[in-house]
């Protein structure tokens, strides 16, 4: 499906996928942006940062032989970058997890054969008209050299929706029993 859409690069967002994906990407010549699984905020302890760094080293050891991986990324939307968190979390602190992000990025940088992106910034996310900005912002050029996220959540197709929402609760109300 991605080949048919002429997609040549994808981001493995905030997780590590199964080995089959990396093997297939290698075979097909697909480029992968591989995130380390850090999303938003975590315990701010040195112990946690050290454990995360060890896991980052293990991730690069396990998957570093895959030529499809062209970029390692360390932390998606760390608290000090994602100021939207102050509105969602009452205990938000703007400086939390800086050491964690740096620790993971330092490990990822040891692989000199790939680009290392210390963190994925909200400034790289193209959410205009959904989470931030206005719909008309799509007419302006992006402020970043890379767009790390775009789009928005959406409902599934109607067939799938009907399997998860009882017919009586669907809108518009209908007398259709199918």
Could you explain the architecture of this structure?
The chain contains 5 helices and 6 strands. The protein has 178 residues and is α/β, with parallel strands linked by helices. It has a single domain, classed as TIM Barrel (Alpha-Beta Barrel). It has a 4-stranded parallel beta sheet with strand order 1-2-3-4. α2 runs parallel beside α4. The chain is globular and about 60 Å long. The model has no long low-confidence stretch (mean pLDDT 90).
Give helix and strand order, one letter per element, not per position.
EHEHEHHEEEH
| Estimated structural class | alpha/beta
Radius of gyration: 20 Å
Q: Name the CATH superfamily classification.
A: Glycosidases
Question: Helicity, in percent?
Answer: 25-40%
Number of strands: 6
**What is the beta-strand fraction?**
5-15%
The largest pleated sheet is described as:
4 strands, parallel
Low-confidence stretches: none
Oligomer: single chain
Overall domain count:
1
The top level CATH class name? Alpha Beta
- Tally of separate helices: 5
In short:
The chain is α/β, with parallel strands linked by helices.
